[in-house]
Amino acid sequence: xxxxxxxxxxxxxxxxxxxxxxxxxxxxxxxxxxxxxxxxxxxxxxxxxxxxxxxxxxxxxxxxxxxxxxxxxxxxxxxxxxxxxxxxxxxxxxxxxxxxxxxxxxxxxxxxxxxxxxxxxxxxxxxxxxxxxxxxxxxxxxxxxxxxxxxxxxxxxxxxxxxxxxxxxxxxxxxxxxxxxxxxxxxxxxxxxxxxxxxxxxxxxxxxxxxxxxxxxxxxxxxxxxxxxxxxxxxxxxxxxxxxxxxxxxxxxxxxxxxxxxxxxxxxxxxxxxxxxxxxxxxxxxxxxxxxxxxxxxxxxxxxxxxxxxxxxxxxxxxxxxxxxxxxxxxxxxxxxxxxxxxxxxxxxxxxxxxxxxxxxxxxxxxxxxxxxxxxxxxxxxxxxxxxxxxxxxxxxxxxxxxxxxxxxxxxxxxxxxxxxxxxxxxxxxxxxxxxxxxxxxxxxxxxxxxxxxxxxxxxxxxxxxxxxxxxxxxxxxxxxxxxxxxxxxxxxxxxxxxxxxxxxxxxxxxxxxxxxxxxxxxxxxx
Length: 527
Known about the structure:
Layout: E1 5-8, H1 15-22, E2 26-29, H2 35-41, E3 47-50, H3 58-63, E4 69-72, H4 82-87, E5 91-94, H5 100-116, H6 118-126, E6 144-148, H7 152-163, E7 167-171, H8 177-183, E8 186-187, H9 190-196, E9 199-202, H10 216-220, E10 226-230, H11 239-248, E11 251-256, E12 275-277, H12 286-306, H13 322-343, E13 348-357, H14 364-376, H15 388-394, E14 398-404, E15 412-420, E16 423-432, E17 436-442, E18 445-449, E19 454-461, H16 466-476, E20 481-488, E21 494-501, H17 507-514, E22 519-526
């Protein structure tokens, strides 16, 4: 089997390349390429490992014909066009935990620097002055720290701040009451936090909801004398408004490690009294850079070699341990999606994916992605689990996933139902043994079949002699039958025939089959 090929296009700890090689990947290390140089070679690679220098644009992705995964050694992925990558079926991963401690410690360092005005005091002391009376600081002990965002980094900051005997409150819509109690954090709304906090630190991603979360209006709601720290993302604070608040004295100090535009060669905040800046140093420790490099290599190799998905931003996570167990289910799900997609007539409006028995205990997102990949393959030849949900969404498909804990007629079952202008169409399948996918129901008719290769689907009137007629027709046209599967609603009623053949069935043979007595539907299938 050909080894997956990975390109490391930014400076990274050399142990990352070693991990790729040890885990079965070929790796090239080519930092510092221009966009044109990267575009010229990216088509050779299955994986691209980057830090912040490489910009993965639509032009790069269009040239990346074989690319399966992009791994960002770090948390920020502003340099990757994730929606475009998703449309191309490329998994985008980051390493959100590799630099968590480092970033949290930097936030604490800036809190202390603000409290004691260390940078300004240092600069004047080194000029030969002794301005002891000009720098009256404040203690952090007993002060209230307000976290905007209490996720991984925010919770570490909370722990360190509690060690400094600070009281910690947090605004985070995703923080549960139980988690807040566990962390020793009081959960509050944003206005309450702004009005109570002596220090505010930000630990949230930049989204439409969080952009300028410290706007001019919200800065005005803060407690007089507040000190603000941002080691998260640029764009969370209105920098012009912050400058005005610093100059008025309402904000006693602010320390920013990140800016709306980076590199920040200029900023309205530069030179403002009470302002401290660092050049995006949150993750800049030896330990953090080693950690994120090793983690991104492990994650990417795990995906390329074993199918495990960790810290992906555009598809559900799937551990290397889960992947083998889920693989037969995902094959079954993909086949069911493909079957119903090929057979459903009319405009698709909705899809329901139901899991029963043992299937209900599995992660639903990978199964959902596999169903959609099979379904959407009828509309595009470049579909996979990554881009299928996006293609389905573009078409306005209403997707519903249902989990039934109660076991039915089968120990495990997946049912896929699509809604069309002509009505609902449903198929269901199970696993024989632990890894053999089988169709067991088709449009309400019980029929057992393996879905693979070239097949022919026929609906006919249940009458003597039909099997002989269809067998004769195929034989006369030199088409060999591999397997033969029958099902019917009732004797003498409507019957279903599903057979596998050794080669694609020509259109003229399909037309001849349609002309046979009692035939209602004939459709070639491919899996």
